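Exercise: predict the structure of this protein bound to adenosine-5'-triphosphate.
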Amino acid sequence: MEGGFGEILTTSGGWESVCESLRVMVSNDAFQRWFRAARWLGVEDDIGTIAVPGEIHQVWIETNYLPELTMAVTGVFEDVREVRVVVGEESGVTDHSEDGSPTPNISQARPTKAAALEGEALDRRIKAAGLNPAHTFASFVVGANSQFAHAACEAVAKKSGVGYNPLFIYGGPGLGKTHLMQAIGHELLRRQPGSRVIYLTCEKFTNEFIDAVRRGDIEKFRRRYRSSDVLLIDDVQFLAGKERSQEEFFHTFNTLLDGRNQVVLTCDRPACEIKSLEPRLISRFECGLTVEMQPPQMETRMAILKKKSHDWKVRVDESVLTFLAEKIRTNVRRLEGALMRVATYASLAGESVTVEKVEHLLKDLIREEASRQVSIDAIQKAVAEHFDVRLADMTSRRRPASIAFPRQVAMYLSRSLTKGSLMEIGEAFGGRDHGTVIHACKKVGEKIDDEPGLKESIARIESQLRR
Ligand SMILES: Nc1ncnc2c1ncn2[C@@H]1O[C@H](COP(=O)(O)OP(=O)(O)OP(=O)(O)O)[C@@H](O)[C@H]1O
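Solution:
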């Protein structure tokens, strides 16, 4: 296909096919919210461009749906290599398509040639490494909850392969583990353009490994991963119970470390809590630096909301931001999603939003969030009642098994139902250290597998706490 945006009239059928593919790849809600109002502008220099109604759409699509969009577009338009998302109004509306909808003039949005070439080369490296363009150090808000992890990642980005190797980052969902890990990749690619940085999820690693075995080209797979300078692997808990993948991972890992190449791993729990993971892998994961990420405190949640509103160029009242930060405490992804919903509503409805409106708009999310917040106090009380021990024994130093075991169960439940860090949990149980909490969780976890009665008791306590 020849370049030029005049093609908008002739390729609208193509865009419809792209939309059909997108409907299969993303949820209906996501499609309606982000792609329904998008317009196809055409292809120029292998780059396909779509226009969206606002910055929020642009940022959200680029951050969350670029791989799906690219796949859908390249599946229909064979000469497209990359897809760019531009904002309709900002790029200047100069034309009208057949159906009367305005078509932005994207040439006005282009940077100078030299800057564009440099930017494009970096973009290509970022894309080839599998990194999300938005996950940089600059866009990460550092708080007390992430200070240590952030410092460790910066140190690794400055001096990869020596020092903290592997870097093992763990913590609950949506707390920024992937973001920080990818920021290392960005920084390295920016400073050392030739570095071979690879980011992938552990699930992808496993699937590619299985495919390589099936196709009989395991050597190619090994060459790719064992020759990287920096390997960033997300969600290693996925290895649990997968013996052959663990074996492969073990050797990949050893080769990289022996060659002083950097490995960074993320996980939803400490390595020793991953069930059915070979001890030799656990000890490898633990031989570098392990850092925990915790949920952000109120002031960090506010700082994140303010930064995101600024980056997305949306104006939301301070009172609304405070409301969101107070209500959504456990997961930055949810916090971000809530702000996005508020901002989209405000931009589409053309009115500013009040706290009352937001309360209504997000009632499901707020209710769900509240149900997640079980306190350690409530757990101690419920466990003490269930095992018929004194509440004071949850924090006492008494050691008889009839008391120590219920206490361990309460620690186990605190670990799985609250966002408390190991340190915070230990503190709540009479100032015990994090090793005691890990030991308790391990012991109860093992017993649950052997004793169906215990499993039932724990499920009962849990459902009582959730009521
Ligand atoms: N401190 C922060 N500053 C800015 N954005 C953040 C911060 N923490 C998290 N985010 C954003 O929240 C979203 C979720 O973060 P991320 O995917 O890194 O979480 P995660 O800990 O890897 O979650 P999961 O374990 O569920 O994969 C991302 O969009 C990320 O950019």
